[in-house]
Amino acid sequence: MSTTSAMKRPLKVGLFFPHAQVGPDGRKPAWANIVALAQRAEQAGFDSLWFPDHYFYPRGDLGLNPVGPPRGEKEAASGFWDCWTLISAIAASVPRVELGTLVSCTGYRNPGVLAKIVDTIEEVSGGRVILGIGGGDSGYEHHALGLSYDNRISRFEEAMTIIHHYFHDGIANVEGKHYSAHELERRPAGPRPNGPPVMIGTLATGQRMLRLTAQYADLWNGWIIRRSTDIAAIPPLREAIDAACIAQGRDPATLGRTLTVGVSLLGRTMPGNETITGTPEQIADTFRAIAREGISHVQIWLTPTSSAGVEAFAPVLELLDRG
């Protein structure tokens, strides 16, 4: 993909990169396969790679159940590698694409430690990190890790305050109910003066999360895989975040917009989710329509997420490069 053609692309296109072993007898996601697919996605012209921050999902569930063992099951159905460790390795192995989390849970790591991890990977990658961040959606994971799931939005707000001061002021002094930071200095600092862009999502539709997005985020993320792939689903989401920006005295135009969508190819489908399908020309037209709705970056959950899936999607990227 040349620089000239990339400039004609109406929006950035990222690949959501699941790294889970599904089921107790599932195949381990081997590092050799992960890095090979990341390199192939970069060669195919993807602008970014996105990694979920999960450790396991309980069987028959998406991690949204209350604290406690999931529905009588004793073992997790899906186990994941640590996303930040993977991103650091990929940053040193894949030189061009942006690397983002979709999204990193503040409940799993002390916010000061998370800020240092992110700044280190910023340095390794040459400033290619997008810090997608949220309060977490899995009570089961918090329970299994021995972490509190109570007051998660309040915890997220305190964590976000520390992270914001660390990157934007170079030092964080915060005394909170859940988290504190004392003379937490940004030293050494990564390559970008204010650190990586912060993206808040993916289910940021509640009023408190919308307020925090307007206060702290550089990018907003919408997630429409389980709602509808219809373009008509976008305006209500956009209107909600615009209103939150205005309420905080922020120009909505200063907040970048991203969207996570599903795309199914090669006759494969994503069970229980609506996805974009069709010929490369039809899919490219859908992406152009998404761009006209003000979306500057999409993360696609590709079915199948494999070298064959990436090869099948490559013509869509070539079409988008024509404008």
Share of residues in helices: 25-40%
The arrangement of helices and strands along the chain is HEEHEEEHEEHEHHEEEHEHEHEH
- The CATH superfamily label reads Luciferase-like domain
CATH architecture classification name: Alpha-Beta Barrel
Based on the structure, what is the oligomeric state of the protein chains? single chain
Unreliable stretches: 1-5, 61-74
Q: Give the distance, in angstroms, between the N- and C-terminal Cα atoms.
A: 13 Å
Strand content: 15-25%
CATH class: Alpha Beta
Compute the gyration radius: what is it? 19 Å
- Nearest-integer average pLDDT: 90
Any overview of this molecule?
With 323 residues, this protein is of the alpha/beta class. The protein has a single domain, classed as TIM Barrel, CATH 3.20.20. Helices cover 37% and strands 21% of the residues. It has 10 helices and 14 strands. The chain has an 8-stranded parallel beta barrel with strand order 1-3-6-8-11-12-13-14, surrounded by 7 helices. Strands 2-5-4 form a 3-stranded antiparallel β-sheet, with no helix packed on it. A two-stranded antiparallel ribbon has the order 9-10. Strand 12, helix 8 and strand 13 form a beta-alpha-beta unit. The longest helix is centred in the middle third of the chain and has 18 residues. The radius of gyration is 19 Å and the shape is globular. The protein starts with a helix and ends with a helix.
